Amino acid sequence: MNEKDEMIPEEEYEDEALEMVDEEGNTERFYPLATIEYKGARYGIFELAEPESEEDEGCFVFSMEEDGDDFVFNEVEDDELADAVFNLYLQQCEEADEDGGEE
User: Over pLDDT 90: what percentage of the chain?
Assistant: First the structure.
């Protein structure tokens, strides 16, 4: 594969939560952490703005599809894919920390 998997910063969303509505009509607010390109697709890494329990804490992986000027987010339900995307995110965070530490 010639494509490079990379993290794309989403600075315009850095300080604001996004509201997402699930298929049952429930609205949740998420903080975007990063956008990841993985195997030709885009994914967003998010955390709940207001987790109700310890089970709700942590990161969530959503696929991102462009719809005009907006994006449609769908939670990745394939555990292997979600783990691969999240591990890529962690790897890139570690690399960024290492690069930032060298002065």
Answer: 41
- CA-to-CA separations, 78 to 23, 53, 59, 83, 93, in angstroms, rounded: 17, 23, 15, 9, 23
Specify whether the CB–CB gap between 40 and 22 falls below 8 A.
no
CA-nearest of 61, 17, 57 to 41 is: 61
Give residue 77's pLDDT.
Answer: 93
- Which residues are CB-neighbours of 103 under 8 A, at least 6 positions away? none
Residue with tokens 């691969």: 84
DSSP 3-state assignment of 92? helix
| pLDDT tens string 25-75 | 888 899 999 999 999 999 999 998 888 888 778 899 999 998 888 888 999
Q: Which residues contact 2 (CB under 8 A, 6 or more apart)?
A: none
Q: What distance in Å separates the CA atoms of residue 82 and residue 91, rounded to the nearest whole number?
A: 14
Rg (CA), the chain: 14
